[in-house]
Each structure stands twice: as C-alpha cells, then as structure tokens.
C-alpha cells in the first residue's frame, strides 16, 4: 500500500498535494493521502476561534489544502485523511461539503473521528503524571483545551465506511498513516512488529518534506536541489511491514539515507520506547539502505504492546509576549545596539513594568545564547549590522505591548541611526500533559453525507 | 609522517544532525557523514561534554542513545529551551537552530576519518 503525505504542519505549502496524489493514482496501488496540520498548542487557538464563531475552529487553510486534490482523490477512490478538524471536526466536515459543491463534486462522503475533546470532562477523570513533567495547576486555571491523543483504530474504523475524506481532531500523528495500513492489511492489536512498522512509516512521513530534503540543506555539505518545488513523501509499505520512502517523479528535493536518518530521530527520546496509542516502537534495530534514486528502504522496526494509558494535552492561558526590534548598521553598529539594549533594560525598571525581559543582539550569537547573554558577552566580532531585539513575557497584554512600544520610542530617544523597527504583541498558550486510562476514552466515528447537512 | 596524527575538528566536519523539541526538552541527532566517523563520536561526544555545550542555557541533564545499526546518536537534553515554545523569550523557542551549536563541539579524528567525511560532503 502507498501512503502519501501532503502537509507536515499547519503553515505548510498548499500546492504540494497535486504531485503526491498523481503519483499515488499513477502507481495503481491501494493508497491514501494524509495531512498533518495540528501542533501541540494549535487546539487552544482553534477552541478560541470556535467560541467566537461556532462554525469555525478547524484548520483555517482547510480548503487551501484539500481543494487542489479533492476532485482527483474522489474520482480515483484514494481517501484523504487529515487532523485538520482541530477543535471542530464536524465543522470541518461541513466546510468540506461546501467545498465539494463549489468544485462541482457530488455525493461526497466525509467520516468524522472525534471523542478526543475532553475539555468538559478532564477535571473529573483519574489522571497520572506524564513522565517527569510538572503538571499544570488546574485548580485556578481556565482550561482552554484538553485533548487526548487518539490512535489509528478509529481511523481504520472510519475507512470501513468507504469515505472520500476522514477528518479527525487530535490523533497521534503517526496514526494518520497507520490507520489506512491497519484497515488495508487487517493488522490488529497483537501484530506488534507490523503495527510498529506502520507507526514508523507514519513517523517518517508526518513532517512532510523533512524527509525529502526540507530542514536539511546545508550548501556544500548536504546539497538539496529544487527546494522551491520540493516533493512530498510517499511510503510504499508491504504486508510484512517493510518500507520504501520515495517522492513523486519530477519534483525537487532528495530522499537519501541522510534525510531518512535525520527524520527517524526527529523528536525522539528513548529510541527503544517510542510510545503511541497503537504500539510501542523500538527503532534500535532499524537500518536504512539506498535502493534507487530517491528511494530508501527502511527495515527492522520492532514493536511491543501499546501503553495502557493515553496522553492528554491541556492548554491554558500563558500570558502575553511583547517584542520589538531595531537595526544599527555601519561604523560602531555593535556599540550602538548594545546601548539600545541597555536603555531598554533601564526603561523597564524606570517604568516598573512587571515582566521578564530579554534583549538580543541579532548578528552576534544571540539565538544560541541563554537568557543571561553569556555567549553574546564573549562575542568579539564587529558585525556590519546588528539588530537589537527586546522581548518580554507579561501577565497582561498592556504591559507586553508597552515593552514593544518602547523599542519604537528608540527611534527618537535612543542611539544614533536606529532604523527598521517592527513590533508585535502575541497571546501565549501554555500546555501540560497528563495520562488517563485508555478505558476512559471513547472515540466516535460518524459518516457525514450531503443528506446529513 | 602525517599518517596517524589526530586532527582536532568541530563535529560539523564529520557529522550532521537535526533537532526536535518536546516542551523544554530538546533532542539532537548526530550522524556521521561516513560510517567510519562513528567510533570517534562514540568515544568523545560524551553526555558530560554535551551538557557543557548547553550549560549557558540552563540545561540540567543529557542522555545519549547510541544506534550502532543506524550509525547515529540521539542526544536528549533537558531544560535547555528556557521554557520552550510555550514560554521562551528566545526567538527560537523550538530550538530548531541548536543542532548547529551542538556540531561546534570538537573531536580528534584520524586523517582517514576526516578524509572519508570530506569525501561524503555534498553528495
């Protein structure tokens, strides 16, 4: 079975699905195409959207992602699977039906997977600490979102209803690929090595181009051609769980053992215990082999039973971030930027602002530095230009906004020749995770046709 | 005689890597360009040295997982993201740029290991 991916995050390119869909159709093999668009904190923002407008709360670019491939996916019978339902999978299903109408597609069938949203219930559930993470103090906190990571079984169940699209809320990313593999091959609990291979296939694909040359290029060391037209990945998975990773012909990027090794280890902790709701994956025996141009075989995934608990990520208000930046260039740029940073620290004290402030000298070593500026202090270069950045965390929007505004005041009240101010104030979400017993989770699968609207 | 004298180079000359984040925890993969670089990294890129590389950011613990079949290493670094994407004041709350900091750690390698890595650059 061939599994394609056409998005690895919510701000991924929206024009990459076409070549993947065409390659899946051209292969003549059983296939599915998935989109992963849900970051950890996205659900809190989506819940806020939904409260403002009950029709919203799904991935804002839903139509942008699905529109370019929907016609060919429906006519070829290749299902689209996406967690783009976010905080409102039913709302996404309605929007997809509207989109089908706009595109002249009749008889669209959308299967919705939900039951992940535990915002109303989480305070009443038995929870355990997740790893060594300090839990959020829920007693005095408004819970903005609480979603359990569902596994692949409800996606496989949804595919049994023969839909054109499966829309989910929070599921573990790899489930978006494992679901169709389970449904196609009939893998079930107990087939741990095969389920683990499916988890690995999903893990390799879930970040889209990160396995086809994205997040990889380093000119002269790791050259990648054609990133402007990078091809998104396809995994060819056999019934025994062996995987070949490739990408559509005629696209940019590269699939080689380096891109695959980097992605195997991406966001991994203990390589023998990659926990998912579907299986525990052990990659310590995994090997990779280049078997053709842009074709890498991945073998050796081993599996053990899935954990008895599932992870719930809870989001709460995280205060406000205020940021401002100003540039200094030419002779003595470094000294003028340093002076600007010093003035900002003095101003925050002078105004007695209740916030945590950090200043950066961008153009030195700031992004690798800590909040105390140890690396920057030992930097002895003389850059041709330096951009001073001030950033502050505050409980309230007004304080954060004032710090950002103070950077713009430096035009007139700061060092000579400061220009190019940009400033912003951003709402922050904090997240924490807990574990709950699997038996407390009730995934739900619903088919939504035109008649249901 | 130039044959066996060890040469001190940044990891960047013989390896590549990628970071990923989960909360305030970072993982960094370190992957030799040529398999012959694996042993030098295994011997010298210790957990203690990696912790030193990130102490200025408040890192508290490093665990190294060796993957001899894959010819790669996974370093897991605790409390290095100054609050992570939720709370960091650093522009890069995810720590996406930090693989290139880890790759500045120096190691001593034989000319043969260095030559094999250089041969593999740009492939």
Question: Strands, helices and their partners?
Answer:
The complex is a heterodimer of chains A (453) and B (123).
Chain A: E1 2-7, H1 17-27, E2 31-35, H2 42-52, H3 62-76, E3 80-82, H4 89-102, E4 110-114, E5 128-129, E6 143-148, H5 153-159, E7 165-168, H6 175-185, H7 192-205, E8 234-237, E9 243-246, H8 257-264, E10 274-275, E11 280-282, E12 287-292, E13 295-299, E14 302-304, E15 309-329, H9 333-350, E16 355-362, H10 374-377, E17 385-394, H11 397-413, E18 419-437, E19 444-448
Chain B: E1 7-10, E2 15-22, E3 25-32, H1 38-44, H2 47-53, E4 61-67, E5 72-78, H3 84-87, H4 99-102, E6 106-109, H5 111-120
Antiparallel strand pairs in B: 1-6, 2-3, 3-5, 4-5
Overview of this structure, please?
The complex is a heterodimer of chains A (453) and B (123). Chain A is α+β, with helices and mostly antiparallel strands and 453 residues long. Chain A has two domains: 2-115 and 150-306, no CATH class; 314-433, Alpha-Beta Plaits (2-Layer Sandwich), CATH 3.30.70.100. Helix content of chain A is 29%, strand content 27%. Chain A has helices at 17-27, 42-52, 62-76, 89-102, 153-159, 175-185, 192-205, 257-264, 333-350, 374-377, 397-413; strands at 2-7, 31-35, 80-82, 110-114, 128-129, 143-148, 165-168, 234-237, 243-246, 274-275, 280-282, 287-292, 295-299, 302-304, 309-329, 355-362, 385-394, 419-437, 444-448. In chain A, the strands form three sheets. A ten-stranded mixed beta sheet of chain A has the order 12-13-9-8-1-2-3-7-4-19, sandwiched between helices. The radius of gyration of chain A is 24 Å and the shape is globular. The mean pLDDT of chain A is 96. Chain B has 123 residues and is α+β, with helices and mostly antiparallel strands. Chain B has one domain (7-120). A four-stranded antiparallel beta sheet of chain B has the order 2-3-5-4. A two-stranded antiparallel ribbon of chain B has the order 1-6. Helix content of chain B is 26%, strand content 31%. The interface between A and B is large, with 54 and 40 residues.
